[in-house]
Amino acid sequence: MSTYDVINPATEKLVTTIEHLDLSGTDAVIARAAKAFETWRHVAPGERGKMLRRFADVVAEHKEELAQLEIANSGHTRGNALWEVDNVVNVLTYYSAAPERLFGRQIPVPGGIDVTFKEPLGVVAVIVPWNFPMPIAGWGFAPALAAGNTVVLKPAEYTPLTAMKLGELALLAGIPEGVFNVLPGKGSVIGARFVTHPAVRKVVFTGSTEVGKSIMAGCADQVKRVTLELGGKSSNIIFADADIAKAAASAPGSVFDNAGQDCCARSRILIQKSAFDTFMEHFEVAVKKFRVEDPSLATADMGPLISKKQFDAVSSFLDEPVAFTGSAPTGAGYWMAPTVLLPKNTQARSWREEVFGPVVSVMTFEDEAEGIAMANDSEYGLSGSIWTRDVGRALRVSRAIETGNLSVNSHSSVRFWTPFGGFKQSGLGRELGPDALDSFTEVKNVFISND
Ligand code: NAD
Q1: How confident is the model at residue 412 (pLDDT cuts 50, 70, 90)?
Q2: Whether 263 is catalytic
């Protein structure tokens, strides 16, 4: 057992010190989860649903406390932190209706009947990154529990506090011991053990593409199920026929929200050449209005970066030509002003790599074909936005862009009742929405003879 100091990224002050679980502690929790599975899987569907609704209610009752923890631990703005608690409540409520709807099929066969069942997998591991500690945890544990699995969840090293609290609230809500387990600690110890432990039947991983690839390779050894939500380099494609003022006014939020530490951040802006000057004029006003301040204030649009390490990593992109910047506080904390870059060409680092900070790169395109080609010129394919008033163009471009989540004349991309996930190296599988249960169950086919 080792200890870890949790730091407030807005002040660099110590929030608390927690204990990290070691390998034998991890094995003990996995064993408890495997044992709990034997009873949890048999809890009547209506009863399991009721327990998940109670869990949702208890989370809602602790909304302010959870939000405060996230503001202090992650530097999230108050507005975001409150939304994130609501998201956990909504996802739990949405999937609480699933146990009674885990339908199989009846398929016509001669000599008897053929039915399919959706069986739970067993112990499901959820590995969470630091950028959205609460929502990403919920997207994994809520459908996993609803489908009858038990869960072992590892929060990111930097941001364990809300996940640990959610673990306590589950017990308070009457979720039986061993069903939902939160294990704070290192990816290289706990996360790696999830991959190798034979009782863990599935790993849901959200994080960097690099670690995701190693997890996928490790899971191959036991043909372990895996869902991956990885990095992104998403485009905000703005055509000259769009409402340019509106596109410009909403662009800062689409990339600087959560200080750009968002896998869906529209960190590439593609603006049709003829509208470049007008767009940049409006965009500069919007960026300068974007409030970077103490995240506990209700007025804050953006807080600090999560760590000094992240600050340094993002700073390394700032050697490209700068169009303009917003402002940020000085002094303690990992503060960075929103920054708009004008990369020289599509080989520039800021154009190709995921920045995961408040930095956006702007380039122009001539026509629809070039816009699509530039947007698709990436190994990633997670998200994106298209701005146009032409319905035909909206449809053509939506079908042509190789990403999992697109929005037209809007930047919304993650709703808990619609599917979310990536093309190409942005991930494997889908979370949320009506079909997420399929990735937490196995289909079993049973033939029953007439004899
Ligand atoms: P990371 O890959 O370093 O860590 C993610 C999680 O994996 C952490 O809990 C970490 O402890 C754990 N981990 C690290 N090494 C491990 C190992 N060898 N085995 C098992 N687990 C291990 O990523 P991060 O820095 O925490 O998060 C930022 C990244 O996450 C960005 O690249 C971002 O794009 C991505 N992300 C993607 C989505 C999505 O839905 N696609 C959402 C959020 C974040």
Answers
A1: confident
A2: yes
